[in-house]
Fold this protein.
Amino acid sequence: MQPDLLGRAHALLPRMVDAVGSLVRAESPSEDLAACEDVVRKAADDFDQWGLGAARMEHHAGRPTWRWGPPRPRVLLLGHLDTVWPSGTLESLPFTVEHDRMRGPGVFDMKAGVVQGWAALLLAGIDEGSGVGMLLTTDEETGSLLSRDLVLDACAEADAVLVLEPSVDGALKSARKGTSWYEVCFAGRAAHAGLDPANGINALSAAAELVLACPGWSDDPRGTTVTPTVLHGGTTSNTVPADAVLTIDVRAWTAEEQQRVDAALRGWSPALTTADLAVDGGINRPALEAAMSASLLAEARTVHEHLGLGLLADRPVGGASDGNFTAAAGIPTLDGLGAVGDGAHAAHEWASIPAMADRAALLAALITRVLRGPSA
């Protein structure tokens, strides 16, 4: 049965490539709500051709989402349709097929993975009553600030979440760092820099203190990084800056480390000025710790070998996804089941065509195994 599954998956490749091209040509930058509406509508129309029942467009907190299957499935396929690429990118970076590779904005991250999910449902004979559902959001690339609650509700009764984000050099993602994003606003007092500087309170100087202090909260042995990223301050060259804004990016392998840095930042104050500060933001995505993927990874490796595809690698990665939310909610979560390729968020982005069949077959067999139990 397994070799037949792989053969059927390869027979679907022309159909998969056409579907990926259709989605890539529907440009969908996260910030463009109209474009996200269009890509969700396009994905729903394209999915109808797979004969698996109707997909539907829904709205949650003002964001369009693509849904198929029960609202709270036993197995949730999770992904997103938004990209980091602005509208018009297709003019300089069109969708192309070159030998065994597809190129184009969002082809690797993660529209090929979406189509692999569709193919897996077809290969596994899944229908809308099978306990499998699929959710595709449109604000993942900007932190899922509006769709997080929807993702958590969708996984509430799940035995497994299978995330269709791209692989890393063909390896699944068995752990992901958690992300915390902060915007620290400093309020000082303006004064003439030449006539009366002592009467000012320099907000930019206070921000500079934090720029120098916050990397000290990193912990190299634990893999925790704290990085000041953007600083804005001042008005004119002869005015003591009354305001400044600093953004800080934090990455950590554990929730404990995220909380440690959060406490350090919220307890910090400048030593050299009396500027006030307010901390906005916080822990955005909790860490996807390896323990939450271990059981599904073992199942995926068994399936991969049964398909004759050899050893399936895994790797921890620094970036986060919506799988971080589901893992933190206590749901077994395996990430990186999407495209094999390279160049996420880069102009050389590409996805392997032959690997689409292998990964669709892997996903189909893994879905069946989760539904029926490890002995299936």
Q: What stands out?
A: The CA atoms of residues 120 and 364 lie 4 Å apart. DSSP finds ten helices and 16 strands in the chain.
